[in-house]
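User: Quick sanity check before I run a bigger batch. Here is a single chain. Can you write out its predicted 3D structure?
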Amino acid sequence: MPATEANPSDISHAALAEKDEVDPELLELPDPPRRERRSTLLLMALAAVASAGMAASLTRDAAYAFRSTSATDLGDLSASPTAAFTSNELVQGHGRLGGAGALRYERPFESDSYRIAPVANRADVWVELRVPSGEENNRFVPKAEFAGRLVRFGDVGLRHRGLRGAIEDRTGQKVSKDAYLLVDGQTPSDARAFALLWAMFVSFALWNVVTIFRLVRKVK
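Assistant: Done. Predicted structure follows.
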């Protein structure tokens, strides 16, 4: 008796029926941990926001790393017009620092100390000097030649955040956010670490955002 060939349509229907059958072992599996999933997504969202905030606060410091290494000569700082100043640039100049409003302070984990004082006869230009450890004493005489980063108080990064308020609290002298701070000795090459930190925080924020998107999107 000749063998009968199977109908292709019957084979396809049988395969679909077999595919539609639910594996009883899958039914016994526990439901997905939705609460833990929401907590993970929330934690990643907070990490993305925090990383983005840190990157934003480091933007100007990171940008300074790519500025020109040729210092702009401002001449006598006590007579230079503010129209010649550009925030977040490398400059050089000379002048005498005033005693009124001068402030000495230290930073954690650093052996050197710092002094900040306004340029004599003006209240809109301040100079920060780094004093090496062991050279700080009552006879300290600040130098008169400066070269470093010029930045508005309103544009300073995390390292100088709160310095304007500290000056006002300690000296009672009002300091405008449009006043300039000359950070003596800080060159663009010194800001490369800030550029690396900025890139790290940006990458971390993007990674969290992309991962959140992949977790919440529906799988087709």
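The beta strands are 72-76, 89-94, 103-106, 113-118, 125-131, 145-152, 180-184.

User: Great, the batch can go ahead then.
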